[in-house]
User: Fold these one by one.
Assistant:
Number 1:
Amino acid sequence: RGMKGFRDWIGPKLGAPLIYDNYPQVMGAYGLVVPYYDYNDFSSITQLLNSISDEERRNISINQCFWIQNNTIEDQLYRVIKKHGIL
């Protein structure tokens, strides 16, 4: 459950939008960029995927790519360093 690691970075670049289960630590972390389905409810996954049009799927992938470009590991490290006044 939750973030999938490297797949989070390559999926949208290949035009496959990411979806996540409704894990509390992930819900809302990405704003409206990531669609969510009910954990362990496979019919909700199917419903979610069937409800997204091809145009919406492209828009989600584009927005996820934009998010990825602005949230690299280096960006995240910089924010942590800045937040804690290390530099």
Number 2:
Amino acid sequence: KDKPFAMLGVNCDDDNQAAIDAIKSERITWPNWHDGAPGEGPIAKRYHIRSYPSLFVIDGQDIIRHKQIIGEALDGG
């Protein structure tokens, strides 16, 4: 709460155009990257992604502060 953050997206859709279409239709405005096949891309390997969606809070020193947080926990509550 009350701390600045940046939202970044990573997708692993087999069909890159489907990901682009979803970004447009859902009006996603934050930066997004395509990481290749699920679990095979460099981002998924670095962060040991095993399920989708996955959510991480990473601080300015590249330290993972929270993994797999959802709902009210994400609000800082």
